[in-house]
């Protein structure tokens, strides 16, 4: 009985270690893909607006915040493009559902 319990404990530890290792690599991979897409969009200036925006603040009405926070949520591609290309920002207004 002790051997079975020890074997289960070891296998659980191995599974948890393997799961935590793949999560960080998946996040890094997703972040790299987003950055590559953003670089591609920024390099193709022909399709994007040129000049200066009159109002660089967009009011975003939603039940959730689009801006990244301390939980490690990545910046959406569209928001990153708006911030980098046009110097804009998003002002989130939380509304009740």
Summarize the structure.
The chain is α+β, with helices and mostly antiparallel strands and 97 residues long.
Characterize the structure shown.
The chain is of the alpha+beta class and 97 residues long. It has one domain (2-94). It has two helices and two strands; from the N terminus they run H-E-H-E. It has a two-stranded parallel sheet. The chain is flat.
List keywords for this structure.
alpha+beta, 2 strands, 12% strand, flat
Strand order of the largest sheet: 1-2
Mean pLDDT equals 72
Reported for the largest beta sheet, the result is: 2 strands, parallel
Output the structural class. alpha+beta
Low-confidence stretches: none
Shape: flat
The percent range for helix content is 40-55%
Spatial extent as radius of gyration = 21 Å
SS element count, helices: 2
Can you count the beta strands? 2
Ends distance: 53 Å
What count of domains describes the coordinates? 1
Topology, please?
Layout lengths: L1 H42 L13 E6 L14 H10 L2 E6 L3
Parallel strand pairs: 1-2
């Amino acid at each position: 009985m002790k051997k079975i319990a020890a074997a289960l404990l070891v296998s659980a530890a191995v599974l948890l270690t393997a799961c935590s290792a793949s999560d960080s690599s998946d996040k890094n991979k997703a972040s790299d893909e987003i950055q590559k897409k953003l670089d591609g969009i920024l390099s193709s200036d022909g399709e994007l607006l040129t000049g200066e925006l009159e109002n660089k603040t967009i009011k975003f009405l939603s039940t959730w915040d689009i801006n990244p926070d301390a939980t490690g949520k990545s910046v959406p591609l569209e928001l990153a493009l708006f911030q980098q290309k046009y110097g804009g920002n998003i002002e989130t207004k939380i509304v009740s559902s």
